[in-house]
Amino acid sequence: MRVVQDDLIMSRLKVSLVVFLQVLDIRSNSHLQELPPSIIKLKRLICLQFDSYDMTVIPDGFGNLTSLEVLNEILASLNILIELCNLTRLRVLTIGFYDDLSLDVEGAFVESVCKLTNIQSLTLWGSFQSTDLFGGRWVPSQHLRIFNWFDVGVFSTLPAWIRRYSSHLSNLSELRIRVKNLQEEDLQVLGRLPSLRVLYLRSTHQTERLLVIGADAFHCRTTFAVYLTPPAQIMFGGGVLPRAEEVHFRFGVQLAKDEGNDDFDSGLGNLLQSLVVEFSKNEPLTILGGEENGGCAQAPTPGSSESPQNSH
Q1: Is 307 part of any domain?
Q2: What is the pLDDT of residue 234?
Q3: CB burial class (10 A; 0-12, 13-18, 19+) of residue 74?
Q4: CA–CA separation, 310 vs 96, rounded Å?
Q5: pLDDT in tens, 90-137
Q6: For residue 46, what is the domain's CATH number?
Q7: Rounded CA gap, 299 and 58, in Å?
């Protein structure tokens, strides 16, 4: 059921048969201020969709919706996060934070996510500075396919749960994160993930001057995007990214010149047999591979976004 008006949801939730409801979509309802307390009786509800900008108040007892598998665009609060740990069937979670995480909110969020052992897709949106969450406390679900925190905050390093528990990430197909400083061993860890097809990775305080992407890495990758700030030199080994359809990266041309490496070989020839490259002074380099694009590399047009995901 997709709800389009406040009175509609209020009336229908009073109907006894509504207890059998499995999907409730209340997006595009800017006038809906709060959900009725009766929503916690929807024990068979599997999917609940909110709007990311709605400030809809959710009643206490939300954790009783234990059949939920999909929870999209919910706005976090301490009470919501405390009850979230009861939703152990969740496969898809998109959750937003408008303010910096307090210690209480951070603790409740970490505790709840650690109990979501069936989670397949975890997306965070909001506006806080640091996402050094979990530490070594989170052992990711072996079902995890999507982890998307690209536009939220910055990890100081590659998260410990990726480095320590890479064996649990055999199904991870999409990863979008930001770190302060990307190191070569981080790329080695990511390059060994067997199912990773889409990677968007940004560093904000890059100190490593040269990153080598080893031979035969990233076998399943179709989209590879690494944005280093400030730009560094990237070298691609032989056999790397054999299935790549898109490659985006910043290349430190000026850095190479400043260090006297005018003849620096980045190994672009190892990516595609036929490659046309256009360098732009202020934009990252984009390489479009495959038959449709003819192996053409180009810089993004002015005003284009580096991250293709939708922003909030």
Answers
A1: no
A2: 82
A3: buried
A4: 14
A5: 999 999 887 666 778 888 888 999 999 999 999 988 766 666 777 678
A6: 3.80.10.10
A7: 45
- Answer yes or no: are the C-beta atoms of 72 and 50 closer than 8 Å: yes
* Burial degree of 10 (CB within 10 A; 0-12, 13-18, 19+): middle
Instruction: Encode burial over 113-151: b for 16+ CB neighbours within 10 A, e otherwise.
Output: beebeebbbbbbbbebeebebbeeebebbeebbbbbbbb
- Flag whether 306 is in a domain: no
CB 286 within 8 A of CB 299: yes
48-84 per-position pLDDT tens digit: 988 765 666 788 899 999 999 999 988 888 899 999 9
| Residue located via tokens 């047999």 | 273
Domain count within the chain: 1
Domain that holds residue 78: 6-298
